[in-house]
């Protein structure tokens, strides 16, 4: 009888331990649900386990091979802009299309916004007007007014919902001599960018036939911070418990967005045909994605559903 009681107690202990372990494993699966990504960009950090802020443009000053004031869009976050070479800042208005992001071999603004006067050793601005779509989708009209001794001066105005612009604001003597200045136009100041790994945004895509610009949902990997992704197409999510030794890492850059709109492993796909009838869906909810954050952490994730701008993702640390 004592032996029987001991066996029953042991069995109960095993079942309790198994139940606790199962519960712990279930607790490891984290869900991420975005707000409407058609309304605002989302930049997710596995480190912070939350969405973080990023920047719109980077103001840089380089001394090699020659001194230059180079302005970069936040290409990793899919910041798009337009250059108006003829308009006046006070009267210029944003066009409906023709936007582009920086590419690996061509910067939209770069150092093309000025000429260097070798006689006076000064910067002469070309007077171009730039329309920049920020990480939060807010458009800003920007004029780069000058630069000297590693510092920038510029003027900008925020586009309102009715198409008008706010009163212009100016930044003067914003120094980039020691380190790049990351600027957020909506906040109206330089920022320290948050570390993010995956972005859920829309990007402007112009239809070549009609000339109409549409904003298509896209998934980004933050290659600037070293994040990269691998895709597993032949295993179930629950069966993946470690990083496969033979995984192929898909390294992104400004020209190649593997998971984004038009990418080889496009996550969110637009279907005009029945039964979807002009709806965006998660094309492969069965795919498993392995994310390398670039700092020694790995996660497996899956995109579960997408509806009217709301994306549901699940992930587990490996």
**Structure class:** mainly beta
Low-confidence stretches: 1-26
Q: Compute the CA-based radius of gyration.
A: 24 Å
The helix fraction, in percent, is: under 10%
Helix segment tally: 1
- Apparent shape: globular
Q: How is the main sheet built?
A: 5 strands, antiparallel
Count of individual beta strands: 22
What's the order of the H and E elements?
Answer: HEEEEEEEEEEEEEEEEEEEEEE
Classify the beta-strand content into a percent band: 35-45%
Instruction: Please tell me the overall pLDDT.
Output: 91
For the largest sheet, list the strands in their spatial order.
1-22-21-20-17
Number of domains: 2
- The N- to C-terminal Cα distance equals 45 Å
Describe this protein's structure:
It is a single chain. With 318 residues, this protein is mainly beta. The chain folds into two domains: 29-51 and 196-317, no CATH class; 57-190, no CATH class. It is built from one helix and 22 strands. The protein has one helix spanning 2-27, and strands at 30-33, 42-45, 50-51, 57-62, 68-73, 80-84, 114-117, 122-125, 129-133, 139-148, 151-158, 169-175, 181-184, 189-190, 198-206, 213-221, 228-232, 268-271, 279-282, 288-292, 298-307, 310-317. The strands form six sheets. The chain has a five-stranded antiparallel sheet with strand order 1-22-21-20-17, with no helix packed on it. Strands 6-9-10-11-12 form a five-stranded antiparallel sheet, with no helix packed on it. A four-stranded antiparallel sheet has the order 3-2-15-16, with no helix packed on it. Strand 9 and strand 10 (139-148) form a beta hairpin. Residues 1-26 have low confidence and may be disordered.
């Amino acid at each position: 009888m004592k032996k029987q009681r001991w066996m029953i107690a042991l069995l109960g202990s095993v079942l309790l331990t198994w139940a606790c372990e199962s519960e712990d494993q279930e607790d490891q699966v984290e869900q991420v649900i975005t707000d409407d990504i058609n309304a605002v960009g989302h930049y997710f950090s596995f480190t912070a386990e939350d969405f973080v802020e990023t920047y719109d443009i980077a103001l840089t000053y380089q001394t090699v091979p020659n001194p230059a004031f180079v302005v970069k869009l936040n290409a990793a976050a899919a910041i798009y802009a337009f250059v108006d070479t003829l308009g006046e800042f006070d009267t210029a208005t944003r066009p409906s299309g023709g936007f582009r992001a920086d590419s690996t071999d061509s910067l939209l603004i770069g150092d093309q916004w000025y000429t260097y006067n070798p006689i006076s050793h000064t910067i002469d601005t070309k007077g171009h007007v730039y329309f920049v779509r920020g990480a939060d989708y807010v458009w800003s009209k920007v004029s780069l007014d000058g630069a000297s001794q590693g510092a920038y001066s510029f003027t900008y105005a925020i586009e309102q919902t009715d198409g008008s612009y706010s009163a212009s604001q100016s930044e003067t003597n914003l120094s980039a001599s020691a380190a790049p200045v990351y600027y957020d136009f909506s906040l109206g100041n330089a920022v320290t960018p948050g570390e993010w790994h995956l972005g859920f945004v829309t990007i402007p895509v112009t239809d070549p036939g009609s000339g109409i610009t549409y904003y298509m949902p896209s998934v980004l990997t933050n290659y600037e911070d070293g994040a990269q992704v691998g895709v597993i197409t032949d295993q179930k999510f629950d069966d993946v418990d470690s990083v496969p030794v033979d995984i192929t890492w898909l390294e992104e850059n400004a020209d190649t967005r593997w998971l984004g709109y038009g990418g080889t492993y496009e996550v969110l796909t637009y279907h005009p045909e029945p039964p979807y009838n002009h709806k965006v869906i998660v094309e492969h909810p069965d795919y498993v994605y392995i994310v390398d954050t670039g700092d020694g952490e790995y996660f497996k994730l899956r995109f579960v559903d997408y509806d009217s701008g709301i994306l549901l993702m699940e992930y587990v640390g490996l």
